[in-house]
Amino acid sequence: MSYRPDESNEQFYAEGAWLQGAIITGVLYGMVIVLSAMCWRSLWPHTRSNATGYKRHRFFLCYVTFLFLVGTIYVAFNAQITQMGFIDNRLYPGGPGAYEEATSSAPLNTAFVVSDWCADILMIWRCTAVYRDTKIHRLIIGLGSILFLGVLVCGTLWLAIVSTPAQATSGWMSFSLLFPYLCFSLAINIFISLLTVIRLLYHRHRISKVLGSGHGTIYASFATVIIESASIYSVCSLLYLIPYALNSPISYAFMQLLGEAQVIAPLLIIHRVSEGKAWTTHSATLMDNNSFQLRRLSAFPKPEPASAPPNRLNVEISFHEEITRDESINTPKSPYLNSADTADAFGRAV
Fold first, then answer.
1. Which structural domains are found in the chain, ordered by start?
2. Best CA proximity match to 75, nearest among 15, 21, 130
3. For the segment 340-349, what is each residue's pLDDT rounded down to a tens digit?
């Protein structure tokens, strides 16, 4: 006896994508909890002292707390809407997948958009930080401000449309308008990420050229490039947008993951900043000073290596003549002395 409902394979696949996405989203929220705790532990000692940069660390502490609250709201309402689709409204026409697609949650959508704004503004700030010592620093600031303003307007417009009363009965607009909004946000993320990666790799090239290839890895390792450029966020955006463009139900799972990925990427960056491992305003200055010192040292002639000591063993042997007044001791005759020399020697001894 089969208890399988009378639904098509496409419906089962869509419902499975919704459910698996909700489960994996809970796993990512666990990462958010761990990263938030790591950031709090690193930032809290700096906020209690009046050392240099304590105001920035206090701001980061508030920022991490806000991100944690947004991620918590997102996962809570995502779990609620999953329960409503698979349990409370299981007999909805088309199944739970159809209910999920036709239902819009205002707190869920708001948390999604706000986390996207937080991730974008932090990425733009990091990009301006790595270009701070360059001639195009002001250009990067102006370009980043314009791009963030575009994301802010698009996100607000999407929230206003999906929150209208007509949206309560027709949820297709939420996904139709979400796609262009996320495409615009992804284009900004990729562009900002490429700018950040180019700067990091250029810095690595300069460090390797001056100090050697082993030193450049410290400043621009693979993990550094991934975290500093927030590539995790960009990859998750692509994992949602590409299946959605291909009309694949698997996009429903990646759309839920994207909400938590937008929180994880900034937390990784802030943790590196709090631990002193991220790019700072002194990174390029320090490298320039090292380059200058090494150029000065290279101007002096290299000292010649000291000659190695010869592999010879020098032994000095000394012979001392012993003279005694005791006549009872007979001096042995030497075969090297003649008779005259022997008599003379004994005469002097007496």
1. 10-286 (1.20.1070)
2. 21
3. 444 454 444 4
